[in-house]
From TrEMBL:
Reactions that this protein is recorded to catalyse: GTP + H2O = GDP + phosphate + H(+)
Ranges in a coiled coil: 210-262
Species the sequence originates in: Aedes albopictus (Asian tiger mosquito)
Keyword Cell membrane (UniProt): no
Protein name according to UniProt: Dynamin-like GTPase OPA1, mitochondrial
Membrane topology: Single-pass membrane protein
Transmembrane segments: none
A Pfam family assignment: OPA1_C
Residue span, Dynamin-type G domain: 296-571
Amino acid sequence: MAQLLRGKASIDPRFKHIRPTVYALSRVNFSGFTYNGNGGGGGAGSGQRRQNFYYQEFLRGPKFGGYQYYQSSRGYGMLVGRVLRGVLKLRYLVLGGAIGGGVTLNKRYEEWKDGLPDMKWLEEVLPDNEKWGQFTKSLLAVKDSVKDSIEIDPRLKQLSENKINEWREWFDKRLDNAIEAAETQQNPQIETTKEELRSKNTVNAKSLSAEESRRRVETLQSQVDALQTEIMNVQLKYQREIEKLEKENRDLRQQYLILKTNRKQPQKKRIKKSLIDMYSEVLDELSGYDTSYSTADHLPRVVVVGDQSSGKTSVLEAIAQARIFPRGSGEMMTRAPVKVTLSEGPYHVAQFRDSDREYDLTRESDLADLRRDVEIRMRNSVRGGKTVSMDVISMTVKGPGLQRMVLVDLPGIISTQTVDMAADTKDSIKHMTEHYMSNPNAIILCIQDGSVDAERSNVTDLVSQCDPLGKRTIFVLTKVDMAEDLADPNRIRKILSGKLFPMKALGYFAVVTGRGRKDDSIETIREYEEKFFKNSKLFQSGVTMSHQVTTRNLSLAVADRFWKMVRETIEQQADAFKATRFNLETEWKNNFPRLRESGRDELFEKAKGEVLDEVVNLSQVSAKKWEELLNDKLWEKLSNYVFENVYLPAAQSGSTNSFNTMVDIKLRQWAEQALPAKSVEAGWEALQKEFQHLMEVARKTPDHDDLYDNLKSAVIDEAIRRHSWEDKAIDMLRVIQLNTLEDRSVHDKNEWDQAVRFFESSVKEKLQHTEQTISEMFGPSTTQKWLHWRSSTEDQNKRKHVKSELDKILGSDAKHSPTLSYDELTTVRKNLQRNNVEVETDYIRETWYPIYRRHFLKQALNRAYDCRKAYYLYTQQGSDCEINCSDVVLFWRIQQVIKVTANALRQQVINREARRLDKEIKEVLDEYGEDDEKKQQLLTGKRVTLAEELIRVRHIQEKLEEFINALNQEK
């Protein structure tokens, strides 16, 4: 303000013509009714005293009446003459100021023009500057014409005519008042010395009544208020002009770069990151590396803290110049820290750190999408019954005129928990706030609601505890428009001077962040803020100073402090990370001297390659081996059904014709229903078994690294769980199997021999299982008792008695049916009763089943021995053959179905299923590759954690060095 009054500050040329008058007003001493032109004693001459008295009378007018002066008519005439001379002199001053304003405008244009980049090359593209040269010459001609004449150039006169007429009317009115006062009052002698005039004024002032003194004070105060309001208006207009020139400068520079780029050959260059973006990337890296500020993460951030609904988010939005955060009616909306990186750019856009989408902040639809995405991210971060989360949401906002800084918006501090909040919400918010403020280089932006009582504030105590000296705290009083009518101005003065709260700060600011309307734009809020402070009693009465108000001044102050602290601390933080890196490298060399430090991502890629190599090895398995694997797996899956549901029921029917008929029926039903699905299941298990076998073989190689075993097993298990055989394979197998089972003629001796061996091996396998069942049921034999010192239980002894009776029945009838008749059961039970053994009928049946099964299987095995050389007899006599070989033919049919099915499954595995399994494994690997939690869970150990930390510290150090180099270049 002082510079403005002295005429040293740069003011819009349109207001230059009021400088002499403002300068004259600044020389008036309003504390009394005397004038001191030099600020000291009576060093000025009589002419100077007359001029001083003229200014005094000019300002006071008739309202400064009350003086009792006595003078002669000569003195009255001298006064009128001097007044007229002053009028003419003031006219010269006003007109000279107007002309000087035009000259200053020309000078400002020349200075601005010299500051632009060299655009000589534009002469080939753009027109010449003839018009600009003519305009400059016309301005210089105005300057020369003033020397010879006081006539004003018509163009300049037209610009300032209205303002000059306004000042003339005002001056004429004041002159008339002064003349009227001179006629009605007797003025003192003009030639009176300065000391005599002061003494007379003092005596006259004492003689004034209290009411007149009060009116004079009110008049003076109103004039001071008017002058202060005018200064505020000038400052706001000047600020808008600066912003307009800055925008024009940016547009011209952008056009300059476009033209320069189009003129030269296009070259691929690396996009240079802005300084604040580089710094933000360092903070993002540190946010995951050091969450407790225990190592070296002491880099500055602007931490926005305050009570809930105190206006924190609104202040941040005003600084970012966009409504980027969701809003609720009394509901907690900020549930997680939001890191906002502000930087200057040609377009007003926002972008999340982990997303490629840019939100155009000039479009309401993009703003709505941005607010919705912020809310979704916040709600996703508080899953599991939490209310607040420590997960940081990183966002970048770029736009014209934005100050470069990094702000972290935290959840508001609450006094009371509601029932829908988690039990630890209040403490969690407090600990989170203390955690961020505990960073010794964090700039604390303390937000205080101006519409509530200061005694209800919770945040000021926390801030004073973390920063008792206030060396990194900036205090912001919000909602001042609501506080003006509710609070005492003296109380607000105390708040903004740091005398009310028990905390200290670097600066104190008062802002207005809106009218409480959700739909208001940032431009509307800004205009409302400027209008409020322009007309506010707080500003006009001197409670606040111009540099303490508006969000723009706040953002300038915060950005200035932020970069000052960054420059003071960045070198120290870089040195700390150098020391950390040296310690980690030493530890790695001592523990893993022959290995290269590889992070989880690199280790995962190596494990991924090994798994995919094993999938490729599936294609190297021979067809013969696949058929052997599939044959074994098919019979393993089908043998139980063949014996229990097909062979045994048919063979125990008693006749060859019944056997064949029952076999045909059961085989057809089986082939139409369960057999194809069981075959596909067997094929899938064979594929899985072979793949796991290849993995086991790979583990036994000398260069195998067991670090990847958990990951490989998890990937394979998940892929196998997801994989399913193609549905059309079942239909294809059903047709093949039905056609194969229709053939009942063994084609040659070789196939007959294979069927006999297959039948023998199958019967022997079932007989072995039956012998084990009998051994468990009847206890050890006599030999086992003597050799192994084993004894029979009471139940086993009872079953032996039952077995002896049942053996008699089979001994008397070798072709006995599978079931016992009622008479046979009664006979056995009565014979046991004679031996004092009481058993039930069901007990006898349970004992009969394994005994008869073994008897039947031995008979079947004997038939297999008889059928070894009966092929030619079978081919000649057919079903009338003396030796019954129908069971051999059945097993030949089963064998042929297994062969055909195995061949079809082998082709399916090689041509389709191995590739589909490869695809499933790749999908699982891709999913695990994007899941950091999975990689941390499956890749563990000191080797991994130490390498991860070392790689991260190196990366952070490189980022810091890159940022420091860019920062030094900017200096």
